[in-house]
Design goal:
This protein is an alpha+beta fold and 274 residues long. It has 4 helices and 17 strands. The protein has one domain: Alpha-Beta Complex (Creatine Amidinohydrolase). Strands 3, 4, 6 and 7 form a 4-stranded antiparallel β-sheet that branches. It is globular, with a radius of gyration of 17 Å. The chain binds 2-amino-4-trifluoromethylsulfanyl-butyric acid and cobalt (II) ion (2 copies).
C-alpha cells in the first residue's frame, strides 16, 4: 500500500512516501522547468557537425548561472557535468567530452536545473546535419511514446497505465523499451518516489493523485532492449549497438489531467526544430 504526504510537512529525503504539492509549489516547479525548457530551445542552433558535447555542457552551466540556477547533475553521486549527452547507441547518462559531433549523429541532451529548490528535469533529441530515415523514425516514435504515456495521467489512473501505453505503442512500431532506467518523482528532490516504469500493465503500480509531480522519460531502441553500463560507471549503451532515443518531461497531476512543466516555449517537439 502506498503512502502520500503533503510536501510541506515531509522531510526533504526519499523515504518512499509520495509527496503531494499544492498550487503554489506547482508554480515553483513550473519556473525551474521553464528555465530547463528554454535552455533546451537555445541549444538548437549549437547542435551542428563539429561541436563537442563539452561545449554543450559549458553552455548549460553558463545559462543556468546567468539565471540563478544550478545543474542538478553537477557533483550528483560523483557525476561531474552539467548535463547528459547521449549520442547514437548511448541510451542515457552519456558524459560530455571533447569529441566533436558528426553529420548523421542523433543526440539526447538531458538537463535538470535547480531553481529556488525546484528541479526541472527534461530531455530532447537533436539531429546533427542529415540523419538516416530509421533514426528519424526512432525519434518520432520515442516522442509519441512519451506523449501517449502523458495522456494517461489523471487522478485515479495508475503508473502501470503509463507504462502500458508506452510499451504497447513502441513495440507496435517494432521498437523496444529499455527496462533498466525509469522515470521518477521530482520536485524538491531530483529523484524521489515513485518510480515510473515505461512498460507494464494497466491498473498495476501506484495510483495517481492530484499534486503528484514526476518525470516520464522513455528510452526506446531500434534493436533489442538490453543495455550495459561502460567502465566509466555512467554511460549506458545498447548491447547490440542499435540506435537509442529518449524524451523526458516533468509533469504534475491536476484534478483533470496533468500540467507539462517542461513544454518548449518555442513549441519544439521533434526535429527539425524550426
Ligand atoms: N537527468 C537524468 C534523469 O532524467 C539523471 C541524470 S543523473 C546523472 O533522471 F548523474 F547521470 F547526471
Ligand atoms: Co529524470
Ligand atoms: Co533527465
Amino acid at each position: 500500500m502506498q503512502n502520500y504526504i503533503q510536501a510541506k510537512s515531509a522531510p526533504i529525503k526519499n523515504t518512499g512516501i509520495i509527496r503531494l504539492y499544492d498550487q503554489e509549489e506547482f508554480e515553483g516547479m513550473r519556473r525551474a522547468s521553464q528555465l530547463t525548457a528554454t535552455c533546451l530551445d537555445l541549444l538548437v542552433p549549437m547542435i551542428v557537425p563539429g561541436v563537442t558535447t563539452q561545449e554543450i555542457d559549458d553552455f548549460v552551466f553558463k545559462f543556468g548561472k546567468e539565471h540563478g540556477a544550478a545543474p542538478a547533475t553537477l557533483n550528483y553521486r560523483g557525476y561531474t557535468k552539467s548535463c547528459c549527452t547521449s549520442v547514437n547507441h548511448v541510451v542515457c547518462h552519456g558524459i560530455p567530452n571533447d569529441k566533436p559531433l558528426r553529420d548523421g549523429d542523433i543526440v539526447n541532451i538531458d538537463v535538470t536545473y535547480v531553481l529556488d529548490g525546484w528541479h526541472g528535469d527534461s530531455s530532447r533529441m537533436y539531429t546533427v546535419g542529415a540523419i538516416k530515415r530509421a533514426a528519424e523514425r526512432l525519434i518520432e516514435v520515442t516522442y509519441e511514446a512519451l506523449m501517449r504515456g502523458i495522456a494517461e495521467v489523471r487522478p485515479g489512473a495508475h503508473t502501470g497505465d503509463i507504462g502500458a501505453a508506452i510499451q504497447e505503442y513502441a513495440e507496435g512500431e517494432r521498437c523496444s523499451v529499455v527496462r533498466d532506467f525509469c522515470g521518477h518523482g521530482v520536485g524538491l528532490l531530483f529523484h524521489d518516489a515513485p518510480n515510473i516504469l515505461h512498460f507494464g500493465r494497466r491498473g498495476e503500480g501506484v495510483e495517481l493523485r492530484a499534486g503528484m509531480i514526476f518525470t516520464i522519460e522513455p528510452m526506446i531502441n531500434l534493436g533489442r532492449p538490453s543495455v550495459k553500463v561502460l567502465n566509466d560507471g555512467w554511460t549506458a549503451v545498447t548491447r547490440d549497438r542499435s540506435l537509442s532515443a529518449q524524451y523526458e518531461h516533468s509533469i504534475g497531476v491536476t484534478e483533470t489531467g496533468c500540467d507539462i512543466f517542461t513544454l518548449s516555449p518555442a513549441g519544439y517537439t521533434v526535429p527539425p526544430y524550426i
